[in-house]
Amino acid sequence: KPQNERQRLPVVPQGIERDEFLKALAELKEQLGQENVEINDKPLKDGWYMEHPNTHDMMTILDEEEFVASAIVYPGSTEEVQQIVLWANKYRIPIFPISMGRNLGYGGAAPRVRGSVTIDLGKRMNKILDINAEDYTCLVEPGVSFYALYEAIKERGLEDHMWIDTPDLGGGSIIGNTVDRGVGYTPYGDHWACHSGLEVVLPTGEVIRTGMGALPGNNTWQAFPYGFGPFSDGIFSQSNFGIVTKMGMTLMPNPGGHEAFMYTFPKEEDLAPLIDIIRPLRISNILENVAQLRHVTQALAARGRPRTEFYSGSGPMPSEAVHAAAAKTPVGDHAWAYYGMSYGPPQVRAHKLALVDAAFRRIPGARRIDPSTLPADEYFWARDRVARGVPDIHELRWVNWQPNGAHIAFSPVSPIRGADAARLFALGKEAHERYGIDFFPAFCVGLREMHLIVEIVFDRADAGQRKAALACLRDMVDEAAKLGYGEYRTHLVLMDQVAGTYNWNDGALMKFNERLKDALDPQGILAPGRCGIWPKRYRGRGWEM
Ligand code: ADP
Fold first, then answer.
1. For the domain bounded by 3-120, which CATH number is listed?
2. What is the ipTM of this complex?
3. Which has fewest Cβ within 10 Å: 339, 364, 435, 513?
């Protein structure tokens, strides 16, 4: 048999004998059908974004066998998800739900605990259950990607009527991205804030519907997120308290026009005054979407060429080399590029864009780039598509910066303040220099906060690069926490560390999360360790990393 067909011994979840595990799997096969239970006994194949594996983290920063599933199961309905949960409780087998597993940079499809059984919800549960053109809402299952929803809206002839919001990469699951609190780039970019209504299978097998979904016969599940009583949805995002099988999402009315724009700013030191200029514009919605301020090194990498084409030395590519290479590109060699979008009919846009122009030009040397000068494959046009809800994958190109390119993110949040931006920029730059890594900062400006997204691109076949990337990340998390900054989301490998930084009042929040975990999941079967939350059975036994 060819190499990639040959078998490898599957990992067995800790605490269960191999024979008993295989017997348990056979029982699950009887319930779900042979074809819906797959043992992970083939060599691990990495694939790429659109053909990603569901067996492990294809961008692993540790040994490939670390975050790896023992088996993958494919439920076809909420009832089958319940059956799987009951089965896991019976045998005390850790299960790890994913929607589509395209959570690139944060662990992909991989489980936190080695040998977990991955529940790949998206493969068979991929229906768009409703698109409501009057209320501008939809109801989806875990396997519905941003691309799929976009296509469905087009097929129904509604693309001039309503928009979706897509993150940088459109191939992921709407539910997966939303429960992990991912963001997009239209005014509806805060996905979690824009969802309305969940259906959740609890770790003990019961199903609940949140918000108005709890009221039989309601027609407001997707229109009013709260219903009555405690707003429970929050405990099902970035947690391990339930498996989301349906979610409502709001859709944006077509604003009647749009215009992408771009400015560049010459010097690294322009960052702080620029962020202070952006803040009032963003909070008052003159800047209407999560807009991005990207460093020239990343803009250069976004061209999709390997770094060796520009520089052959080791260590971070020197600033002069970056600027020399960037000078030959259509957007030039300025230190920062701002990508924005203005919405509405021309007269409305003209007013807002004039305000933005006057404000941005207070930075000496600021340049407005005329989009008509930019070639069709310029990164600007990918930002244009994403900011009007058209799914895209151009963003992947900077992964080519290294051979076997993989990436992992450091993503702290801060207020939209120049001083905070400068502190985080300096912290990241120093850490990258310490470990000889190119620094790719991008500030994503929300409404009253900004996420700094620093993607480390590394060669996943190079153990030294993996080690340096991880050490750099760990330093940045700790140093940021000392200054009072925390991450909005993180990779599996950093979850314990990041959770540990949210430790006010002797770790009171984690103690509360652990109490919820033990109450909702007494056997500790659902995604143990996800977001640093360990069930009782695992706590204090050396699982943290
Ligand atoms: P995407 O397909 O958008 O990339 P994933 O399916 O990888 O998203 O989801 C990201 C993470 O969110 C997963 O690793 C998992 O921990 C969690 N998650 C995703 N979907 C669900 C779900 N339906 N229920 C509970 N947790 C989920």
1. 3.30.43.10
2. 0.98
3. 364
